[in-house]
Amino acid sequence: MKLSFSLFIAAVAVTSEAHKLIVKKISRTGGPQRRTPGNSAADYQINVASASAAGANAFDLNSVHDLIYIANITVGGIEYPVQLDTGSSDLFIKGNTYPIPNTNETSTTTNLTYAIGWAYGHIAHAAVEFIGIQVPSQAFVDATEVVNPALGYGAQGIAGLGFTALSTIDFTLNGTQSSSGRSLLYNLFEANPSEPNFIAFALQRDSEPGAEVIGSFSIAYSGVTGNAPIPTWPVKSPHRWNVLLDAVIVNQTITPATTKVQGAPSNKAVVLMDSGSSYTFVNHHILCVFPIIQQVDRYAPKEICDAIYGDVAGAYFDSTIGYWRVPCSTEIDMALQIGGQVFPVHPLDVNPATIADPTVCLGSFVPQTFSLATDFDWLIGDNFLRSVYSVYDFGDFDSSGKMGNPYMKLLSVIDSDDASVDFHNIRGGTPRTNITFTGLNGISVAPSFSISNDISTSLEMIGKYLPAMLAIVALNALVVVICAVVWIVMLCRKRRARHAIARARTPRSRQMSPMPMNPMHSYIAGVEPPATPPGIHIYEPVSMALTEDTFVPPTPAFHGFDGGKLQPGDRPKSVA
Questions:
Q1: Transmembrane stretches, by residue range (predicted)?
Q2: CA torsion 556→561→563→567, rounded to 10°?
Q3: What are phi and psi of 455, to 5 degrees?
Q4: Each residue of 205-254: pLDDT tens digit?
């Protein structure tokens, strides 16, 4: 089934979609506070958007999500607002009462532990409806105790949109010989087998509610169909939406990625694409936090933080709060190269402003020690995802019904020149123009254009069968060459045979003597021809030269010689 979560700031005018879902974007106010280093022995399920807090709405930067996206889900006939999270795979609800009405509680309890925060309760089953699609029985945690900042923004739970392999609920129920714990998306796809099984997000930074649609791509972002798929890491049976990061580009300076993940390419970084995350984690002893006031954050290695802010005039690292301080008027242009494709990041998401001081902004990459997981290096949050239209495809089905490997597709939704105008309209100053990003191997930002599904499919088929086509052409060429060689050999043999026949008809022992030529004329007036020995015949050709010596006129009338009779040897005289 195809889920297209288009989280627009302004509702997109799309009338062809079968389902729509209203999404609210919630942001917080307040100044930055000191982060305490995180060192949670968290479950491998990651959601940075959840954390504990001293009070109902009091969160320091270690727990604040600054910006989260909330949608409604119906459980047991009652609607609940939940945060959308591609970094986890479980659904939990903290209802107004316990147990939640119209659900089937089990005696099995479990604890959903996130990187920051947790939720505890009984596993229950209930009919669920999400984006107009109904699942007859969905397993979830009916939470009795929750420590999660999302609840301070009005959410009553988290809807994990990851793989079943990451689900704590499924793992727990498998221990009871039950297979009813599969993830929400797995059950949504199973309920609609005729639809392609992918989800798509278009997150925006403004405060107006957006719309989620199902059944097709958003018309504005149909160009994503022409972009190359980005494989997950690992390619087969991944637990998370991990992909490989090639490099970070900051103001035309390229910083290649590195990894600590065992088995991953050494010149890449394994990054988790997490729509529910405020930060980007890195599996290093030293990493950076990407906390964004009024926006969403990410973590990255220390060398990345230095590459971003180290050359900015007036920028310095404030050890008292653990962040870079950056002049708000400074535009930092950067992009990420993922899967061989370059995607710019909006400059307002790189150094966000604070309410406390409108002239000094916080660097959104902040060095921080953290120890968390071993299967990814970075955890990329909504601040990057707002700059792209992201598609999470669980794998295409082949003709036999077998599901292929999962992958992602990304489409840049910002123009760097327009983003510069947005930045300076808010911060002041003169926008930049002709902003370009060139990554490794000379790859630049891909143009935003749309290729129809038919053309895209045709190109994929050509690429798939091109080697076979070339092999057939090569075979045909080889056959033609062989036939030509055979014909030439046969022709040579035939000519040799003809020469042999000719030699057989004329033996070498039989010599052909030339015809002898008699230098003497056949007739000389008054001279007797020489005697020819008997038995010898000499061929004397007849000369065709018309000379006086050999010319014999026809037989006209002749007269005598001086009136006398013609004597032997006398020349006759013509009357002509």
A1: 465-489
A2: -100
A3: -65, -45
A4: 665 444 444 445 777 888 888 999 999 999 998 999 999 999 999 988 99
How many domains, in total, are found in the chain? Answer: 1
Residue 306 CB neighbour total at 10 angstroms: 16
Does any domain span residue 26?
yes
In a domain, 576, yes or no: no
Amino acid at 2: K
**Whole-angstrom distance, CA of residue 439 vs CA of residue 245:** 12
Residue 241 is assigned to a structural domain of this protein: yes
- Residue among 446, 400, 251 nearest 333 (CA): 251
Q: Is residue 298 part of a domain?
A: yes
DSSP secondary structure string for all residues of 431-488: ---S---B-GGG-BBPP-----HHHHHHHHHHHHHHHHHHHHHHHHHHHHHHHHHHHH
Rounded CA-CA distance 295/65 in Å is: 8
Separation in Å, CA 102 to CA 77, 157, 405, 456, 492: 7, 17, 37, 46, 94
User: The tokens of 172 are what?
Assistant: 């727990």
CATH number of the domain where residue 122 is located = 2.40.70.10
Which pLDDT score is estimated for 231? 96
Q: Give mean pLDDT in consecutive 10-residue pieces for the chain, a chain of 576 residues.
A: 47 39 53 36 30 30 49 94 90 94 95 84 95 91 90 88 93 89 90 81 63 60 90 92 94 88 91 72 44 42 83 90 88 94 92 82 69 71 86 81 86 94 94 92 58 46 74 89 89 80 60 54 58 57 52 56 57 56
Nearby residues of 55 by Cβ (< 8 Å), 6 or more positions away: none
548/80 Cα distance (integer angstroms): 137
SS3 174: helix
CA distance 303 to 368: 12
